[in-house]
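User: Please fill in residues for this 290-position structure.
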């Protein structure tokens, strides 16, 4: 973790940023950076030769497209994950949709991600992280994003306000950066994906902003798979977010996410390979909201 002048500073992010934001528990170790190569990823999705149940397009070249869903989550949704570093249970993470509230006269979803290392792992590297996103329920874009991260001896806080009139992101220190219309933040990207039509064997692309930069985020739809978790057995769609731009958005590794193959599109498993091992987050409990 170094700043541009070589001094210790805020951790540099890679493809693991989306993983951190979408499931904050994976921040336990992704600060080490993502490594190239398929080792440690789940069987069947480790490389392009063995993707799970990847459908072959018909002779005409058309792919099966799963239709969009109108309401994949509701206020009160709460998902709890066990975060594993290899075979070690490192902590827990939760994803929540606590409420719908009003922002500038518009209905807004509140998304909340938390991560907490357990007592044993905290002796090595203590994590207490919180990420909040406020997301337009009608327009499906981000209004506000904030982080409060305690990782080891480091603490970081920031807030981003998205001004869709001026098309700029304003940070807590007063700096502003241009954004495209209907941009997603690092947490809302997962929730936005849950609404979309998903072409099996294809991908979707939308605009994303984090760490003072905007870039297209491609989400590849790899295929179908079945996953057993402490919360139950789920038929899933397997997706892979890819930050393909340069700099901090350079794609140096792989993150694989399993979402349910139903109207909820609920994440139940995430796996990623980092420089010093593999990390996974497995659903252990869920409340679906009302």
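Assistant: Residues filled in for all 290 positions:
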């Amino acid at each position: 973790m170094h700043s541009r002048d070589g001094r210790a500073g805020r951790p540099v992010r890679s493809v693991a940023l989306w993983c951190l934001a979408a499931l904050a528990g994976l921040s336990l170790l992704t600060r080490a950076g993502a490594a190239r190569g398929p080792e440690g990823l789940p069987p069947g999705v480790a490389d392009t030769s063995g993707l799970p149940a990847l459908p072959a397009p018909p002779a005409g070249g058309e792919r099966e497209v799963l239709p969009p869903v109108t309401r994949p989550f509701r206020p009160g949704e709460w998902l709890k994950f066990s975060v594993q570093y290899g075979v070690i249970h490192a902590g827990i993470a939760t994803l929540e949709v606590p409420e719908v509230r009003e922002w500038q006269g518009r209905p807004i979803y509140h998304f909340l991600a938390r991560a907490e290392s357990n007592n044993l792992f905290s002796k090595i590297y203590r994590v207490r992280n919180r990420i909040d996103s406020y997301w337009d329920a009608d327009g499906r874009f981000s209004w506000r994003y904030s982080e409060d991260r305690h990782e080891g001896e480091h603490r970081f806080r920031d807030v981003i306000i998205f001004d869709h009139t001026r098309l700029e992101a304003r940070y807590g220190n007063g700096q502003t950066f241009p954004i495209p219309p209907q941009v997603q933040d690092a947490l809302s990207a997962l929730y936005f994906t849950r609404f979309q039509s998903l072409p099996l064997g294809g991908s979707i692309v939308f605009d994303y902003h984090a760490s003072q930069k905007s870039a297209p985020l491609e989400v590849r739809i790899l295929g179908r798979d079945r996953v057993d978790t402490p919360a139950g057995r789920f038929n899933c769609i397997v997706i892979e977010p890819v930050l393909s731009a340069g700099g901090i958005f350079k794609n140096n590794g792989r993150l694989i996410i399993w979402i349910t193959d139903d109207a909820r599109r609920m994440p139940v498993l995430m796996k990623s390979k980092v420089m010093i091992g593999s990390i996974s987050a497995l659903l252990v409990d869920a409340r679906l909201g009302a």
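For context: The helical segments are 16-22, 119-122, 188-195.
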